[in-house]
Amino acid sequence: MGTLYIVGIGPGLPHAMTQRARDVIQTADCVIASNLYQEFLRRDGTLPPEAETDGGTATRPNGTEQEIVRSSMGRQVELAREAFERVRNGEDVAHVSGGDPNVYGKSDLVFLMADEEDADDIPIEVVPGVTAALGGAANLGAPLSNDFCTVSLSDKWRGWDEIEEKLRAAAIAGFVIVLYNCWRDYERAIEVIREERADDVPVAIFNDAGRGEAGRNVDDETHTITTLGAATDHDEKVGGMGTSILVGTHESHEWENDYETYLVTPRGGREVEDF
């Protein structure tokens, strides 16, 4: 029996991937990953170069073979079943997820499929990664230093009424809110939050956090700081799957030095001497 690893690779580039994730991918007998993630993982040799891949089988520097399987949105159920069979046949399988597998990633599907397929004999390990909220927050400074939450705007698995309820509850409770899947009704989400939060609270729109020039955004990795009242005036900054929006609280504020402008959310009203 092998092991099924659900591996979070963060934004996908070598500098933002954990050593554990790299080790698991390099030593797995089979790696399931999208074309984009395969491209990222070849940049530092985590996966062998594409030129050395023949019919899905790659030869690693140590001479051993590794099978590379292309993942796509329409094949997730099929690939989960295939992974179970490979593990039963003694293979270690690395199922690659962008960001963190537990933040709108692959982990829940694998466990749902394991339940449906009676695959309780399959060893499963989740390898965490840096999610977009954390990567984007690092670029912005310290916007998540107090309580925060993430909300997906995708209505693929839940209706808008439920999404709106969560947005409203988070806004009332005073959480910093990070919105994922912002190509889905982000204007509608902003309007819901505006009903519970002042228009002058800071908002940050960020694209392809941690990917530099390697992402899918036409302007590469970007972030824009604006306000809740003006957030929907920056429609050109909301580029697609790589876009997230961070909505601050009444305590969030901009902080500038000689180099750039940051966004900070303090942990309550503490002073330096409180630390």
List the helices and strands and how they pair.
Elements: E1 4-8, H1 19-27, E2 30-33, H2 35-42, E3 53-54, E4 57-59, E5 65-70, H3 76-88, E6 93-97, H4 107-116, E7 124-127, H5 132-140, E8 141-142, E9 148-152, H6 160-173, E10 176-180, H7 186-194, E11 202-207, E12 222-227, E13 243-247, E14 253-256, E15 261-264
Parallel strand pairs: 1-6, 1-7, 2-5, 2-6, 8-15, 9-10
Antiparallel strand pairs: 3-4, 4-5, 10-13, 11-12, 11-13, 14-15
Structure, briefly:
By secondary structure, the chain is an alpha/beta fold. It is built from 7 helices and 15 strands.
Tell me what you see in this structure.
The mean pLDDT is 91. It is built from 7 helices and 15 strands. The strands form 3 sheets. It has a 7-stranded mixed beta sheet, sandwiched between helices. A 5-stranded mixed beta sheet has the order 9-10-13-11-12, with helices on both faces. Strands 8-15-14 form a 3-stranded mixed beta sheet. α3 packs across α4. The radius of gyration is 21 Å and the shape is globular. It has 275 residues and is an alpha/beta fold. The chain is 26% helix and 24% strand.
